[in-house]
Amino acid sequence: MITKELKTILGDVLGGINAAIVALPQALAFGVAAGVTAMAGIWGTIILCFTAAIFSGRVPLISGITGPVTIVVASVLQSVNADISILFLIILFAGIIQMILAFTPFSSVIKYIPYPVISGFLNGIGVIIILMQLNPIIGHPVVSNIFLSIGTFINNLHNINSEALFIGLLTLIIVFALPKKFNKIIPSQAIALVVCTIVSIKFNFNIERISDITFMFPSIEIPQFNLRQIITYAHYSVILAIVLSAESLLTLLVSDSLLKTKSSSKKMLFSQGIGNIFCSLTGSLPGACATLRTVAAINSGAKTNISAIVCSLILLILLYKFSGFAAQIPLAVLSGILIKVGYDIIDTKLLKVIKYAPRDDLYVLWLVFILTVFYNLIVAVGAGIVAAAILYAKRVADETKLVHKTVYDEDIIKLEKELDENYKHKIRVVHIDGQFFFGSATQLVSQFEEIWGTKYLILDYSAGKLLDISAIFALEDIIIRLKAQKINIFLVITNDYVMKQLKEHGIISQIGEKNVFFSELEAINYIKNNCNLRS
């Protein structure tokens, strides 16, 4: 019989292996896309994943270079005229800033960023990654500047390397067309990496390859710097630290949601800072907690930081055993993989319901998206937050009126007390008071962690104000969590426009129209007359 401890260890080992399989092609591809080397990408992932796991506690976070980090590093490298020594100095101070941020309220501020800002940022990053791969997939060097990348691609269309294009298209077919059931066993990106590399070797294609892969532990070098350099490049370190930290905090939120845990964001940030300092000292690229790899590990059974340690060790073994093969990987294959990564980063969840989204949310989303792609990542996020706050303030101001409101029905108050006394909390009523918007949505979700002893829950949203996208997704999250606790959900909506909005977004269909009422009294009477309250 397998004990609980052994089951946890087996889950961590399997989760670490699966995360490593996902991480390997991405780390190689991101290293090249960042304008450094594939080796810098893979060693950065190994070092950060191992170091952060040691210092972050028991949470199963898989760290390494990611899409947003790659874009920032490539942008910084271009800004410092491709001076690698300056880049690693910037990474060093970014790690130090992360450790400092761990002792500030920054780790709790991230939850208040509106959803359209996050969506616009992710969509922008996804598009940038795709646009940067247009040249490599037709056999030409990567160009990190978006405008130059598009212009160069148009010029290079007259000189396409057909063999590189064939391998790139074959990669895209594999990563996009492979059925999900196979993807769960072996990630399509790993399959594409192996199959397309073997094809290119078999037919002796004349295309650019990684080439510089050798198994050699990186040496530690302390960068030389002076006060003038610190002042000159400080803003780059701040930008990089914020992106590294923000992505890690978002991944921590996802991990805690999946595992129903509450981890220390401060400890996680501190450990990420230590790991990125080690990356800079070894000439490796920095990284963050990677959402896709972390989810892959958790879905495979990972519960603790052992999975991250296993992931780094598996990557080390793969690098040692297959460095010769890795050197033969065509750059066009990495481009195909990155196009798929860019597509996965794009927020398709929001795109499906974008026609129903309030105009204010769309204004913010497009502002952040355009600034992210064509100007600056951090400016984009900052402008998005400011715009969202201004638009919300305007909306509230426009709706503010003097209203004479009657006191809350005393009969309903008595009825709710009777429910608690007679049915031992099997029926509960939760009132969502005030405006349900992006500022309150995250807080509200956290209040529904556990509702012990309840079988029937009435969510009463009597406010007449429409919900924004963040609130709708938060309400969906609440419903999923309550259903997971085997709780029957009933909804009280008194506003026809809110009802229409929830129908358009599929919330009503998740609950069932028969479980939606226009008054709390109707809902209570329905449960008392039609549900089993004695079991």
Q: Please, could you describe this protein's structure?
A:
This protein is mostly helical and about 525 residues long. The chain has 2 domains: about 5-350, no CATH class; about 410-530, 2-Layer Sandwich (Transcription Regulator spoIIAA), CATH 3.30.750.24. Helices cover about 65% and strands about 5% of the residues. The chain has 24 helices and 6 strands. The strands form 2 sheets. Strands 3-4-5-6 form a 4-stranded parallel β-sheet, with helices on both faces. Helix 4 packs antiparallel against helix 12 (about 265-280) and helix 11 (about 225-260) crosses helix 12 (about 265-280).
The SS-based structural class is: mainly alpha
Helix amount: 55-70%
Q: Provide the β-strand percentage band.
A: under 5%
Largest sheet: 4 strands, parallel
Sequence of strands across the biggest β-sheet: 3-4-5-6
- Give the C-alpha Rg: 26 Å
Measured between the Cα atoms of the first and last residue, the distance is 33 Å
Tally of contiguous helical segments? 24
Low-confidence stretches: 400-409
Count of folded domains: 2
Spatial shape: globular
Topology of this protein?
Elements: H1 4-33, H2 38-55, E1 63-64, H3 67-79, H4 84-101, H5 106-109, H6 115-132, H7 146-156, H8 162-177, H9 180-183, H10 188-202, H11 227-259, H12 265-281, E2 288-289, H13 291-299, H14 306-326, H15 331-345, H16 348-351, H17 359-374, H18 377-399, H19 410-423, E3 427-431, H20 438-446, E4 456-461, H21 469-484, E5 488-493, H22 496-504, H23 507-511, E6 516-517, H24 520-530
Parallel strand pairs: 3-4, 4-5, 5-6
Antiparallel strand pairs: 1-2
Helix pairs in contact: 1-2, 1-13, 1-14, 1-15, 2-12, 2-14, 3-11, 4-11, 4-12, 6-15, 6-17, 6-18, 8-10, 8-15, 10-15, 11-12, 11-13, 17-18, 20-21
